[in-house]
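Record 1 of the preview.
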Amino acid sequence: MKVLVDTPIWSYSLRKYNKKYHAEINELALLIQNQRALIIGPIRQEILSGYSDLRKFKKLKEKLSYFENTPIHDSDYELAAECCNKCRQ
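->
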């Protein structure tokens, strides 16, 4: 099964090592090693938006290019809205 990894987890793994997020960083590493990590355009944008240094931006952009961009369909947004509404009930 593939796993969509959200922005905070990518951010934790890209920052200086922090013991607080050790488990999350290790889990992401396993997902990447097993080719199970997914990324979508909005998450890729959020990650790259944190790098104003052009050299670091280009380096990270290249590394993220190894992850196929998973498309988002309207039905994904509709299902997300349904789940949100159910949770609020």
